[in-house]
Amino acid sequence: CEICINGQTITVTTNLTLIIPKYSQVSCDVTNFFPTKPIELHTLVLSETELQSVFSLLKPLIKSGAPITRHLPNY
């Protein structure tokens, strides 16, 4: 599947968690290249405090060496 966010394209081949802060101006298109494999999307709206809590829970995963891909936006 391919995700295009504000003109930046990310090809997704595994599970992905995409975090977009509340009140962000985002235009997003999702294209599924494999019609036999459904895409599951969930939308969460989190405040800054809630996001900080989530990131604190993610820190152990990042330190564990789990495969993580980071994409930085172009402004």
Question: What do you see in this structure?
Answer:
The protein is an alpha+beta fold. The protein has one helix at 48-63, and strands spanning 2-5, 8-11, 28-31. Strands 2-1-3 form a three-stranded antiparallel β-sheet, with no helix packed on it. Strand 1 (2-5) and strand 2 (8-11) form a beta hairpin. The longest helix has 16 residues, at 48-63. The radius of gyration is 14 Å and the shape is globular. It comes from Proteus mirabilis. This is Urease regulator.
Major beta sheet, strand line-up:
2-1-3
Enumerate the spans where pLDDT stays under 50 for 5 or more consecutive residues: none
CA radius of gyration is 14 Å
Treating each run of at least 4 consecutive H or I residues as one helix, how many helices? 1
Largest sheet: 3 strands, antiparallel
Q: How many β-strand runs?
A: 3
Shape: globular
User: Into which percentage range does the β-strand content fall?
Assistant: 15-25%
Q: What is the CA-CA span between the terminal residues?
A: 24 Å
Mean pLDDT: 74
The percent range for helix content is 10-25%
Order of helices and strands: EEEH
Structural class: alpha+beta
The overall number of domains is 1
Attribute tags:
75 residues; alpha+beta; 3-stranded antiparallel sheet; Urease regulator
